[in-house]
From TrEMBL:
Ranges where the Ketoreductase domain occurs: 6-184
Source organism per UniProt: Streptomyces klenkii
UniProt protein name: SDR family oxidoreductase
Organism domain of life: Bacteria
A molecular function (GO) term: oxidoreductase activity
Entry coiled-coil feature ranges: none
Listed CDD domains: SDR_c
Family: Belongs to the short-chain dehydrogenases/reductases (SDR) family.
Amino acid sequence: MTDPAPLAVVTGGTRGIGLALSRRLVRLGHRTVALYRSDKEAARAAADEHGLIAVQADVADRRSVREAARHILTEHGTPRVLVNNAGINIDRPFLDLTESDWHRVLDTNLSGPFHLTQALAPAMLAAGDGTVVNIGATTGIRPRLNGVNYAAAKAGLLQFTKCLALELAPTVRVNCLIPGMTETEELITRFRLNEPQHRAAVLSEIPQRRIGSTDDIADALEYLVGPLSGYVTGQKLIVDGGQFMW
Ligand code: NDP
Protein backbone atom coordinates (compact mmCIF):
# COMPACT_ATOMS: atom_id res chain seq x y z
CA MET A 1 0.00 0.00 0.00
CA THR A 2 1.36 3.49 -0.82
CA ASP A 3 1.79 6.05 1.97
CA PRO A 4 -0.97 8.69 2.16
CA ALA A 5 -0.07 12.24 1.13
CA PRO A 6 1.42 14.31 3.97
CA LEU A 7 -1.06 16.14 6.17
CA ALA A 8 -1.18 19.89 6.79
CA VAL A 9 -3.33 21.87 9.23
CA VAL A 10 -4.09 25.58 8.76
CA THR A 11 -6.08 27.58 11.30
CA GLY A 12 -8.43 30.14 9.79
CA GLY A 13 -7.78 28.21 6.60
CA THR A 14 -10.99 28.83 4.69
CA ARG A 15 -10.69 32.54 3.93
CA GLY A 16 -8.24 35.44 3.61
CA ILE A 17 -4.53 34.65 3.85
CA GLY A 18 -5.30 31.28 5.43
CA LEU A 19 -7.24 30.13 2.36
CA ALA A 20 -4.31 31.03 0.09
CA LEU A 21 -1.98 29.08 2.40
CA SER A 22 -4.33 26.07 2.44
CA ARG A 23 -4.62 26.13 -1.34
CA ARG A 24 -0.85 26.27 -1.74
CA LEU A 25 -0.40 23.30 0.58
CA VAL A 26 -2.93 21.34 -1.49
CA ARG A 27 -1.01 22.29 -4.63
CA LEU A 28 2.17 21.02 -2.97
CA GLY A 29 0.51 17.66 -2.48
CA HIS A 30 -0.74 17.88 1.13
CA ARG A 31 -4.05 16.67 2.42
CA THR A 32 -5.03 19.92 4.10
CA VAL A 33 -7.26 20.41 7.13
CA ALA A 34 -8.57 23.97 7.25
CA LEU A 35 -9.87 24.97 10.66
CA TYR A 36 -12.67 27.53 10.69
CA ARG A 37 -14.50 29.13 13.59
CA SER A 38 -17.86 30.50 12.63
CA ASP A 39 -19.49 30.28 9.23
CA LYS A 40 -20.00 26.59 8.56
CA GLU A 41 -21.71 27.03 5.18
CA ALA A 42 -18.98 29.35 3.84
CA ALA A 43 -16.22 27.13 5.22
CA ARG A 44 -17.72 23.99 3.69
CA ALA A 45 -18.17 25.75 0.34
CA ALA A 46 -14.53 26.88 0.33
CA ALA A 47 -13.40 23.42 1.36
CA ASP A 48 -15.39 21.75 -1.43
CA GLU A 49 -14.14 24.21 -4.01
CA HIS A 50 -10.46 23.91 -3.06
CA GLY A 51 -10.16 20.30 -1.96
CA LEU A 52 -9.77 21.05 1.76
CA ILE A 53 -10.97 19.15 4.81
CA ALA A 54 -12.96 21.66 6.90
CA VAL A 55 -12.95 21.18 10.67
CA GLN A 56 -14.62 23.54 13.15
CA ALA A 57 -12.64 24.84 16.13
CA ASP A 58 -12.39 28.05 18.12
CA VAL A 59 -8.65 28.40 18.63
CA ALA A 60 -9.24 30.68 21.61
CA ASP A 61 -10.98 27.84 23.45
CA ARG A 62 -8.60 25.15 24.70
CA ARG A 63 -11.30 22.48 24.92
CA SER A 64 -12.50 23.12 21.38
CA VAL A 65 -8.90 22.95 20.11
CA ARG A 66 -8.23 19.71 21.99
CA GLU A 67 -11.35 18.12 20.47
CA ALA A 68 -10.38 19.23 16.97
CA ALA A 69 -6.81 17.95 17.45
CA ARG A 70 -8.11 14.59 18.64
CA HIS A 71 -10.40 14.39 15.61
CA ILE A 72 -7.54 15.30 13.23
CA LEU A 73 -5.13 12.76 14.73
CA THR A 74 -7.73 9.99 14.78
CA GLU A 75 -9.36 10.57 11.41
CA HIS A 76 -6.53 12.00 9.32
CA GLY A 77 -3.23 11.19 11.04
CA THR A 78 -0.24 13.23 12.17
CA PRO A 79 0.35 16.58 10.49
CA ARG A 80 3.68 17.27 8.84
CA VAL A 81 2.82 20.98 8.59
CA LEU A 82 0.99 23.17 11.10
CA VAL A 83 0.19 26.77 10.19
CA ASN A 84 -1.10 28.93 13.05
CA ASN A 85 -2.77 31.61 10.95
CA ALA A 86 -6.07 32.49 12.67
CA GLY A 87 -6.01 36.01 13.99
CA ILE A 88 -8.21 38.99 14.79
CA ASN A 89 -7.78 42.73 15.31
CA ILE A 90 -9.75 44.85 17.73
CA ASP A 91 -8.01 48.20 17.34
CA ARG A 92 -8.84 50.93 19.83
CA PRO A 93 -7.01 53.71 21.66
CA PHE A 94 -5.43 52.22 24.76
CA LEU A 95 -7.65 54.15 27.19
CA ASP A 96 -10.79 52.80 25.48
CA LEU A 97 -9.62 49.19 25.33
CA THR A 98 -11.90 46.91 27.34
CA GLU A 99 -10.78 43.82 29.20
CA SER A 100 -12.74 41.78 26.67
CA ASP A 101 -10.92 43.48 23.72
CA TRP A 102 -7.63 42.62 25.38
CA HIS A 103 -8.47 38.98 26.09
CA ARG A 104 -10.16 38.21 22.77
CA VAL A 105 -7.11 39.35 20.81
CA LEU A 106 -4.58 37.64 23.10
CA ASP A 107 -6.67 34.47 23.31
CA THR A 108 -6.99 34.13 19.53
CA ASN A 109 -3.62 35.35 18.27
CA LEU A 110 -1.34 34.02 20.99
CA SER A 111 -3.12 31.40 23.10
CA GLY A 112 -4.55 29.78 19.93
CA PRO A 113 -1.09 28.76 18.65
CA PHE A 114 -0.20 27.59 22.17
CA HIS A 115 -3.29 25.34 22.48
CA LEU A 116 -3.07 23.78 19.03
CA THR A 117 0.69 23.35 18.85
CA GLN A 118 0.75 21.73 22.27
CA ALA A 119 -2.02 19.34 21.19
CA LEU A 120 -0.30 18.30 17.93
CA ALA A 121 3.43 18.55 18.71
CA PRO A 122 3.74 15.22 20.57
CA ALA A 123 2.54 13.32 17.48
CA MET A 124 4.77 15.41 15.19
CA LEU A 125 7.79 14.70 17.39
CA ALA A 126 6.94 11.01 17.51
CA ALA A 127 6.67 10.98 13.70
CA GLY A 128 10.22 12.36 13.56
CA ASP A 129 9.48 15.24 11.18
CA GLY A 130 7.45 18.38 10.95
CA THR A 131 7.32 22.12 10.62
CA VAL A 132 5.27 24.81 12.35
CA VAL A 133 4.72 28.22 10.79
CA ASN A 134 3.19 30.97 12.93
CA ILE A 135 1.68 33.93 11.10
CA GLY A 136 2.87 37.11 12.80
CA ALA A 137 2.41 40.76 11.93
CA THR A 138 4.68 43.76 11.46
CA THR A 139 2.87 45.37 14.39
CA GLY A 140 4.55 42.77 16.57
CA ILE A 141 7.87 44.45 15.82
CA ARG A 142 7.06 48.04 14.95
CA PRO A 143 4.55 49.89 17.12
CA ARG A 144 1.52 51.58 15.64
CA LEU A 145 -1.35 53.56 17.14
CA ASN A 146 -4.40 51.81 18.60
CA GLY A 147 -2.93 48.33 18.42
CA VAL A 148 -1.69 47.62 21.94
CA ASN A 149 -3.47 44.27 22.27
CA TYR A 150 -2.61 43.09 18.73
CA ALA A 151 1.03 44.22 19.06
CA ALA A 152 1.42 42.43 22.39
CA ALA A 153 -0.05 39.24 20.93
CA LYS A 154 2.06 39.26 17.76
CA ALA A 155 5.27 40.24 19.59
CA GLY A 156 4.56 37.37 21.97
CA LEU A 157 4.03 35.04 19.03
CA LEU A 158 7.48 35.88 17.69
CA GLN A 159 9.21 35.01 20.95
CA PHE A 160 6.93 31.95 21.32
CA THR A 161 8.26 30.88 17.90
CA LYS A 162 11.89 31.17 18.96
CA CYS A 163 11.55 29.40 22.30
CA LEU A 164 9.46 26.64 20.73
CA ALA A 165 12.05 26.19 17.96
CA LEU A 166 14.64 25.53 20.67
CA GLU A 167 12.45 22.98 22.42
CA LEU A 168 11.27 21.08 19.34
CA ALA A 169 14.68 20.97 17.60
CA PRO A 170 16.05 19.04 15.89
CA THR A 171 12.85 17.22 14.88
CA VAL A 172 10.32 19.98 14.23
CA ARG A 173 11.26 23.35 12.75
CA VAL A 174 9.33 26.43 13.91
CA ASN A 175 9.32 29.78 12.10
CA CYS A 176 7.31 32.99 12.03
CA LEU A 177 6.04 34.30 8.69
CA ILE A 178 5.23 38.00 8.92
CA PRO A 179 3.01 39.49 6.24
CA GLY A 180 3.03 43.19 5.54
CA MET A 181 -0.18 44.72 4.23
CA THR A 182 -1.84 41.89 2.37
CA GLU A 183 -4.93 42.30 0.23
CA THR A 184 -7.75 40.57 2.08
CA GLU A 185 -11.34 41.75 2.50
CA GLU A 186 -10.60 42.50 6.12
CA LEU A 187 -7.63 44.74 5.26
CA ILE A 188 -9.41 46.51 2.39
CA THR A 189 -12.24 47.44 4.74
CA ARG A 190 -10.02 48.42 7.67
CA PHE A 191 -7.73 50.68 5.64
CA ARG A 192 -10.41 51.81 3.14
CA LEU A 193 -8.18 50.66 0.29
CA ASN A 194 -11.03 50.92 -2.24
CA GLU A 195 -10.74 54.70 -1.91
CA PRO A 196 -7.97 55.93 -4.23
CA GLN A 197 -6.55 58.53 -1.82
CA HIS A 198 -6.22 55.95 0.99
CA ARG A 199 -4.64 53.39 -1.34
CA ALA A 200 -2.19 56.00 -2.69
CA ALA A 201 -1.18 56.98 0.85
CA VAL A 202 -0.47 53.35 1.75
CA LEU A 203 1.41 52.68 -1.51
CA SER A 204 3.65 55.69 -0.94
CA GLU A 205 5.07 53.88 2.12
CA ILE A 206 5.81 50.59 0.35
CA PRO A 207 9.01 50.50 -1.75
CA GLN A 208 7.57 47.75 -3.99
CA ARG A 209 4.63 50.11 -4.72
CA ARG A 210 1.91 47.52 -4.36
CA ILE A 211 -0.12 45.91 -1.61
CA GLY A 212 0.98 42.33 -1.00
CA SER A 213 -1.14 39.53 -2.43
CA THR A 214 -2.11 36.43 -0.52
CA ASP A 215 0.01 34.53 -3.08
CA ASP A 216 3.09 36.48 -1.91
CA ILE A 217 2.52 35.02 1.55
CA ALA A 218 1.87 31.54 0.12
CA ASP A 219 5.19 31.75 -1.78
CA ALA A 220 7.02 32.38 1.50
CA LEU A 221 5.11 29.55 3.16
CA GLU A 222 6.15 27.23 0.35
CA TYR A 223 9.78 28.04 1.16
CA LEU A 224 9.31 27.59 4.93
CA VAL A 225 7.62 24.19 4.67
CA GLY A 226 9.86 22.89 1.90
CA PRO A 227 13.28 21.28 1.70
CA LEU A 228 15.07 24.53 0.77
CA SER A 229 14.56 25.80 4.33
CA GLY A 230 15.70 22.60 6.04
CA TYR A 231 18.35 24.46 8.07
CA VAL A 232 16.07 27.40 9.00
CA THR A 233 14.37 27.41 12.39
CA GLY A 234 13.45 30.00 15.02
CA GLN A 235 13.44 32.73 12.38
CA LYS A 236 11.10 35.44 11.17
CA LEU A 237 10.51 35.96 7.47
CA ILE A 238 9.00 39.36 6.72
CA VAL A 239 7.08 39.71 3.44
CA ASP A 240 6.13 43.39 3.33
CA GLY A 241 7.42 44.82 0.04
CA GLY A 242 10.24 46.51 1.94
CA GLN A 243 7.92 48.68 4.03
CA PHE A 244 9.82 48.37 7.26
CA MET A 245 13.20 46.70 6.58
CA TRP A 246 14.24 45.47 10.03
P1 NDP B 1 -9.17 37.41 7.97
O1 NDP B 1 -9.93 38.26 8.92
O2 NDP B 1 -9.44 37.53 6.51
O3 NDP B 1 -9.27 35.88 8.38
C1 NDP B 1 -9.06 35.51 9.70
C2 NDP B 1 -9.22 34.02 9.80
O4 NDP B 1 -8.98 33.64 11.17
C3 NDP B 1 -10.61 33.56 9.44
O5 NDP B 1 -10.52 32.38 8.69
C4 NDP B 1 -11.25 33.29 10.80
O6 NDP B 1 -12.19 32.23 10.79
C5 NDP B 1 -10.07 32.84 11.61
N1 NDP B 1 -10.30 33.03 13.03
C6 NDP B 1 -10.42 34.18 13.72
N2 NDP B 1 -10.65 33.93 15.02
C7 NDP B 1 -10.66 32.58 15.16
C8 NDP B 1 -10.85 31.69 16.25
N3 NDP B 1 -11.07 32.14 17.49
N4 NDP B 1 -10.79 30.37 16.02
C9 NDP B 1 -10.58 29.89 14.77
N5 NDP B 1 -10.39 30.67 13.70
C10 NDP B 1 -10.44 31.99 13.90
O7 NDP B 1 -7.64 37.74 8.28
P2 NDP B 1 -6.35 37.72 7.34
O8 NDP B 1 -6.44 36.64 6.35
O9 NDP B 1 -6.12 39.11 6.88
O10 NDP B 1 -5.23 37.40 8.43
C11 NDP B 1 -4.71 36.10 8.63
C12 NDP B 1 -3.52 36.21 9.57
O11 NDP B 1 -2.55 37.09 9.01
C13 NDP B 1 -3.88 36.78 10.94
O12 NDP B 1 -3.11 36.14 11.93
C14 NDP B 1 -3.44 38.24 10.82
O13 NDP B 1 -3.14 38.78 12.08
C15 NDP B 1 -2.24 38.11 9.93
N6 NDP B 1 -1.89 39.32 9.21
C16 NDP B 1 -2.68 39.81 8.21
C17 NDP B 1 -2.28 40.94 7.51
C18 NDP B 1 -3.07 41.49 6.37
O14 NDP B 1 -2.65 42.51 5.83
N7 NDP B 1 -4.18 40.90 5.96
C19 NDP B 1 -1.05 41.66 7.84
C20 NDP B 1 -0.28 41.05 8.91
C21 NDP B 1 -0.70 39.93 9.55
P3 NDP B 1 -13.76 32.50 10.49
O15 NDP B 1 -13.84 32.86 9.05
O16 NDP B 1 -14.41 31.21 10.78
O17 NDP B 1 -14.16 33.61 11.40
